[in-house]
Design a protein that fits this description.
- It contains three helices and seven strands; from the N terminus they run αβββββααββ.
- The model has no long low-confidence stretch (mean pLDDT 92).
- It is globular.
- α2 runs antiparallel to α3.
- The longest helix is centred in the last third of the chain and has 18 residues.
- The protein is α+β, with helices and mostly antiparallel strands.
Amino acid sequence: EAFDMFQVLYTGAIRHLRIEHTWYIDANMHRGNIQRRIFNNLQAFWPGMQTLVGDLEAATKTINAFLQVWNEFGFTPEDFSIDKWQPLSG
């Protein structure tokens, strides 16, 4: 039952939160509008979750995007602007 519920939520996340087939953005859970177009280092679990549910192609794209940030800056910033391609200070 929990996995069935997760599948519905995962499908929604892919449909509404994924941009450029790689990144996942923050959205308002009540209105659905975009909150921030950023990568947050707390998202680092997501490729592992994608692997566990068998979405290996998406997991590969996601982890490679995160690795691209790591390779360029030497770390994954707490908040990273996807559009400006720079760490955000906060």
